[in-house]
Write a structure and sequence with these properties.
229 residues; alpha+beta; 2 domains; three-stranded antiparallel beta sheet; 7 helices; 10 strands; oxidoreductase activity, acting on CH-OH group of donors; FAD/NAD-bd_sf; flavin adenine dinucleotide binding
Length: 229
Amino acid sequence: MLYTRSHHRDFDGWASDGNYGWSYREVLPYFLKAESSYVKVSSNTFETPMISSVLEVAREFGYRAINPFDKVQLGFYRASTTTLKGQRNSAARAYLHPVRNRRNLHISMNSIVTKILIDPDTKTAYGVQFTKNGVSHTILTKKEIILSAGVIASPQLLMLSGIGPRHHLESLSIPVVKSLSVGYNLHDHYGYTQLKFNLRNPGTFEPHKTTAQQFDEYISNGTGPFSSP
């Protein structure tokens, strides 16, 4: 629900390592396209007094209010969210729900992909194996296979399919399709989000002070305290 872009140096670092097409300048048009398409990116219309207080304290300590979508990302800002009319606007809701009944779209729930089938000679993926309810299934493709299993499962699935360090795959009796350093050099960003404050006058959203009018405002317009993520 919270939305932000990665730092431009992340992308430029990937490009400098030889991943052509991944520089910040090259990926920016795709961010702009996504942010103005079906998944709406916006700032919350409801704010408690505490938000302005935090920004003011930040300025007193020498930090400035920033636009999180600019290159300079050191500072404080009002968070952007993928919400629409006070409700979470997920990729599933925005992209999948409107087309889920199309005849040429098949969705397999509760399924786990176990292997990508790759021709050892042409190095071309031609199918996918997956399990559902304990039963193994195979799907063949005529076009593309998009691997989008996350930062952990994607390299795992590649290695199960024969793409990875030769010594590691052979130790597990997995036939090697291509020996690559898949799974190495994985990094994540350091982060800390559990900041807590003691306030004399909270000024936050207090459930026991909500009113029927506020609830009606949310139901009717998608605004007010109940629209806060």
